[in-house]
Design goal:
- This protein is mainly beta.
- Strands 1-2-3 form a three-stranded antiparallel beta sheet, with no helix packed on it.
- The longest helix is centred in the N-terminal third of the chain and has 6 residues.
């Protein structure tokens, strides 16, 4: 993700990686990370709404 942003081929200021895993009984594990062109990466809290 960092390389995509750093190369400048796309005009984005950040990229988001969303990881979803299906568990038993239709439960989901969700994780998200945001990457910046400077190489920073942060975990993001995902809030589930019903």
């Amino acid at each position: 993700m960092h390389e995509l942003l750093a190369q400048g081929r796309i005009s984005a200021t950040f990229a988001c990686l969303l990881i979803v895993r299906l568990r038993l009984f239709r439960r989901l594990d969700v994780g998200a990370y945001v990457s910046t062109p400077e190489g920073g990466m942060q975990s993001v809290t995902v809030v589930r709404e019903r």
